[in-house]
Specification:
Largest sheet: none
Radius of gyration: 22 Å
Low-confidence stretches: 22-27, 64-73
Helix content: over 70%
Number of helices: 7
Number of strands: 0
Shape: elongated
Distance between the termini: 43 Å
């Protein structure tokens, strides 16, 4: 048996690395951009700031009515404005995240919608759909205090569930979202701050880390 020369060993190693990269591309969606996380986080922080402003304006303008609490009609109006704002933030985050991911996929000459991305979307959609129905139930019964914790927990579960089809680093973000959601269950009056921390701050930090690790040139 003849031993390989250093050049042949180097070529064999490169071949193995190429095979590994091809297998990862076929089984994992690796075009997810770190800037997608940053953009989603910034959208969430802007939305949280607007929501905080609306809440302060409402309670500052209406004050507390003795024996009756705050105006019920005003509270309902504020709550549905917040729901509309949350949907707007979600739409903005999805649009900007998709654009950054598409740009990265185009640079890498990889498809953005293939077998791996379909698996990723499916595994994220299941916990998100369940969480969406759960949150709608909370809203229906006016149990608004636990909307933020539920959003964080189900979103974290979606990330953990989908992590096997993309970069494994996303699993850690999912775990952090779940932990933050569980903690916020015990601080129901601070839900907006936990929501901003989970969907805003954690996303920005995660996105910058991913960009530094995988995309920085």
């Amino acid at each position: 048996m003849t031993s390989q020369s250093p050049t042949e060993q180097s070529q064999s190693l490169e071949t193995l690395q190429d095979i590994k990269r091809m297998m990862e591309r076929s089984s994992r969606f690796i075009s997810l951009s770190g800037l997608s996380g940053v953009s989603a986080g910034l959208c969430a922080l802007i939305g949280a700031y607007i929501a905080h402003t609306w809440i302060l304006d409402y309670y500052g303008a209406n004050g507390y009515i003795e024996h009756h609490g705050y105006l019920r009609d005003g509270v309902n109006s504020l709550q549905w404005r917040l729901v509309t704002l949350a949907l707007g933030v979600l739409a903005a985050a999805l649009i900007t995240s998709t654009w950054f991911t598409w740009r990265k996929a185009r640079k890498s000459k990889l498809p953005i919608w293939d077998h791996a991305s379909k698996k990723l979307a499916t595994n994220m959609a299941i916990p998100l759909a369940a969480g969406g129905f759960f949150v709608l139930g909370l809203i229906h019964y006016s149990d608004w205090f636990y909307v933020a914790p539920a959003c964080l927990i189900f979103y974290g579960l979606a990330l953990v569930n989908a992590s096997k089809y993309t970069l494994t680093d996303i699993r850690y973000l999912g775990v952090l979202e779940i932990v933050l959601g569980c903690i916020s269950m015990y601080y129901p009056h601070e839900g907006l701050y936990f929501w901003a921390a989970g969907f805003g701050v954690l996303h920005v930090i995660y996105g910058l880390f991913m960009w530094w690790k995988y995309e920085r040139q």
